[in-house]
Amino acid sequence: MKPIKAAIISISGYSLSDEEKQILEQENPLGVSLFDRNVSDPRQLHHLTDDIKSVVGRDNILIAIDQEGGRVCRLRPPHFRSYLAQTAIGSLEASLAERAARLHAELIADDLHKAGINCNFAPALDVATPFITKALKSRCFSRNPQVVTGLSQIILHTYNQYGIVPCIKHIPGHSGAQNDPHLQLSTIRHINRRYFYPFEQIAPQALMAMTAHIVLSEIDDLPITMSPKAIQTLIREQLGFKGLLISDALEMKALKGTLQEKTLACRTAGCDAVCYCHGDFENVKLVLQHCGYLSDNALETFSKISELISKPYFPEKILQKEKEYQDLARLTPLIADDYDAVEVLNQL
To answer: Spelled out in words, what is the top-level CATH class assigned to the domain 5-346?
Structure first.
């Protein structure tokens, strides 16, 4: 098998250009991440994901998307289902929240399978705080770390059961950050360790995780994503994460330097792969030129991921589950959910 480049890249539109087909075939990246600009309707999307797999020549190429719920959804009505923000799920009474979380993941898994997508950058394990940034306001299940943990575990288990690989984020957590990392770096001087709790409980069983672009100055002056010390001592050892570690988007303004410098710094620090989301072809080439290949350890984890996403999918009682989910959604409060940080970044 051709070596796999350590990058999840992006494409520019609804279909692959000839240049994109050529680079996918030649470079064999770990995955492709899809965004609003890549989604028109179910038929177009399924054709695109089939094309990506065919051009690369691997059914196990990760085709990833952000489908958390609420504003952070790339598959939206009228062609796809509407999903609650994680905050709305967490607002329900405990047993109802647990049922909603299960249905949430089952229905999203159904949408993703129909679209040919096998990886979801979700759930977010961040713990809500009184002064949380706009970027995370609707994306945290609760201020209670135990609630965040319980609901996240349900979602993780459900995705695994239905053959969608979940990527937990943003390890080790944005809680306490002052700024939206898409726009500016945050430095947290004193770590509130209760915010690590969901990651401590879930990271050891997760196959994929995405980093947080923050500085924890008690550990290092470098952003987590670029810090060998933070990745090894905190993420790998203290939190016990042994899976595939993916950088959050390289183009986010929290990281300084050229794209080449950021790619090299993230890989040198210990990220198993980098993620580039803007879809600019010249920058995609640049990332693929400098990201290197998956390590032997990363390939070992990727073999487990490949086994997971190859599981046959048999939808059961989907219409009944959809109705139950909609009934639960009516019990949730109206959530102010009008800020999608990725959209903000794309406009810069």
So the answer is: alpha beta
